[in-house]
Design goal:
By secondary structure, this protein is mainly α. The protein contains twelve helices and no strands. α8 packs antiparallel against α9. The radius of gyration is 18 Å and the shape is globular.
Length: 267
């Protein structure tokens, strides 16, 4: 495990945590950055497994609320419905990911797809952020199961790298009547089973191909993703409440255009 590879893993892990919960596509960013850094990831496993750091970051921030929901769902119908809503939203991605994850990684995990998806997603965010949707839900605990299912279907679009899991779920929630803050918070909760499932599936599929140096690099990326993920989760809801999603839309478009330029120049 060379020093250069360790530095690259640390950079990619930090970017993963910074972008995982923002509507900018963490997988797209680390695939694109890894391409230009020359980082080699066997079977694209590094990009998926370091998400565990971001998962633990959001679990640590929401631990008290999760504990309250977990203990209260047996006696509180509202909390029980919320847990069921998260499970309903998770099912579509679990099915599609379980059936097609290898095909998706083989054919869509490439820089050109990432760049075009970043740009297209940025344009969608601009339109959504400017549009005034009917606001029916200001609290994630009030989302009906039908709304949760719609959000779960939107999450499936994010199987394409560059789309953004959080971006797709936030847009789906807002189109269903959620406020920006409620949409982002539901996306946080849905991230937990979704990312944990992706991590478990990828580890089960590829653990036999991992060498000692791969595990070391994944560990470095995991730690950095945890640190940067904590920074984002603690401030994101307040930020989007004040500024909306337009800054992220312009960021996506800029990164996508720069990526296409880099591909044209450097290959």
């Amino acid at each position: 495990m060379s020093l250069i590879a360790m530095i690259q893993a640390a950079i990619l892990g930090f970017v993963e945590g910074m972008t995982e919960f923002l509507p900018v596509s963490s997988t797209g960013h680390i695939l694109l950055l890894g391409h230009f850094l020359g980082f080699e990831s066997p079977t694209r496993t590094f990009e998926v497994l370091i998400q565990l750091g971001a998962i633990l970051a959001i679990l640590s921030v929401y631990f008290k609320k999760l504990l309250d929901i977990g203990l209260g769902m047996f006696t509180d119908a509202k909390k029980r419905r919320f847990v069921l809503a998260i499970l309903v939203a998770f099912i579509p991605a679990a099915i599609i990911g379980g059936l097609f994850s290898k095909l998706i990684k083989a054919y869509l995990f490439n820089p050109f797809v990432v760049c075009t998806s970043l740009i297209a997603g940025g344009l969608v965010l601009l339109v959504v952020d400017e549009h005034e949707f009917e606001k029916k839900y200001d609290d994630v605990m009030d989302f009906p199961l039908s709304t949760a299912l719609k959000i779960g279907l939107f999450q499936c679009i994010a199987m394409m790298p560059g789309v953004s899991r959080s971006g797709a779920t936030i847009v789906g929630a807002m189109l269903s009547g959620a406020t920006k803050r409620a949409a982002a918070e539901f996306s946080f909760f849905l991230a937990m089973p979704t990312m944990a499932g992706a991590f478990a599936k990828d580890l089960l599929d590829n653990y036999k191909f991992l060498a000692a140096k791969d595990i070391g690099l994944i560990s470095i990326g995991f730690v950095m993703a945890f640190i940067s993920g904590l920074m984002v989760v603690r401030g994101f809801l307040d930020f989007i409440s004040r500024h909306g999603f337009t800054p992220f839309a312009y960021w996506r478009i800029a990164v996508g255009l720069l990526g296409l330029a880099g591909l044209a120049i450097f290959g």
